[in-house]
Amino acid sequence: LLFLSSIFQMDTTQESYLDLFPLDAIVYLTPDSENVLEDIDRNKVYVLGGLVDESIHKKLTLQRAQEQSVQTARLPIREYMVKTVNTKNYRSETLAINQVFDVLSTYYDTRSWPAALKAGVSSGKGYVLPDAVK
């Protein structure tokens, strides 16, 4: 489990984040959340849920967070990016943990979602910034 607190401190542990932090301080990042992450709160701990698997299990991280009564949020990909035209008709808001980390750390440094999403969301995901559409 990887969790971020005050965005620059990264720790790994076998302990549950539920035992380490107050429930109201935890935000589980999942692409299936209805809540959009608008800003990073230094008083929150962001859990980067991830699966090491070849297939994507839809809504598994959202379900896990809901079962634990933990707040959820998703990156604002739909709000700042547009779908690309591609031959495979493939689009995914599911990112690898390192991509989510790149987005969060860039946002923290720049306070710009477009810059942050450009840093972490590859065009292969089927989304680009509007100015990249030709």
From TrEMBL:
Swiss-Prot/TrEMBL GO biological process terms: tRNA N1-guanine methylation
Any one Gene Ontology molecular-function term assigned to this protein's record: tRNA binding
SAM-dependent MTase TRM10-type domain location: 1-128
Catalytic activity: guanosine(9) in tRNA + S-adenosyl-L-methionine = N(1)-methylguanosine(9) in tRNA + S-adenosyl-L-homocysteine + H(+)
Domain of life (superkingdom): Eukaryota
Gene3D superfamilies linked: 3.40.1280.30
One GO term describing the cellular component: nucleoplasm
Keywords: Methyltransferase, S-adenosyl-L-methionine, Transferase
UniProt cross-references to InterPro entries, sorted A to Z: MT_TRM10-typ, MT_TRM10-typ_sf, tRNA_m1G_MeTrfase_euk
E.C. number(s) listed in UniProt: 2.1.1.221
Tagged with keyword Mitochondrion: no
PANTHER family documented for this protein: TRNA (GUANINE-9-) METHYLTRANSFERASE, TRNA METHYLTRANSFERASE 10 HOMOLOG B
Protein's recorded name: tRNA (guanine(9)-N(1))-methyltransferase
Protein source organism: Calonectris borealis (Cory's shearwater)
Lineage: Eukaryota, Metazoa, Chordata, Craniata, Vertebrata
Gene that encodes it: Trmt10b
